[in-house]
Amino acid sequence: MEALKKITHNCKHATYLIEKKLIGRLTLREKIFLKIHLFGCGVCKLYQSQTQKINLMIKQLLHGSAARNARLDEDFKKALQERIEDELNKN
Q1: Longest C-alpha distance within the chain, in Å?
Q2: Which of 9-13's residues contact partners 24+ apart within 8 Å by CB, and which partners?
Q3: How many domains does the chain have?
């Protein structure tokens, strides 16, 4: 049971880092952890691949003519980021 908790925690941390990598930079320690984790975890590797594809599709969608002027409010972005972090920190 303890081993399962550790694996689950590592996957939660890895998915957090995958998302963080899309919006910013990872520390050297985070990059190493993620690289090692992805080497041995096919589920997180698939998650990373799908997340990258979704991110690319959204960027392409937002670069359309109607969406050029669409911007998220800074307060909304901050609140959304906090909600995401709260959800990731549960359990």
Answers
A1: 52
A2: 10/37, 10/41, 11/37, 11/41, 11/43, 11/44, 12/88, 12/91, 13/37
A3: 1
Tell me if 37 sits within 8 A of 44, measured CB to CB: yes
DSSP H or E stretch at residue 87: helix 74-89
Rg of the chain in Å (alpha carbons) = 16
pLDDT digits (tens, 9 = 90+) for 55-89: 888 888 877 655 555 677 888 888 888 888 888 88
Task: Name the residue with higher pLDDT: 68 or 47.
Answer: 47
CB atoms within 10 A of CB 63: 9
Please report, to the nearest 10 degrees, the dihedral formed by the alpha carbons of residues 48, 31, 55, 78 taken in order: 120
Residue ranges making up the domain that contains 14: 2-89
* 84-87: long-range contacts, CB 8 A cutoff, minimum separation 24: 84/19
How many residues are present in the chain? 91
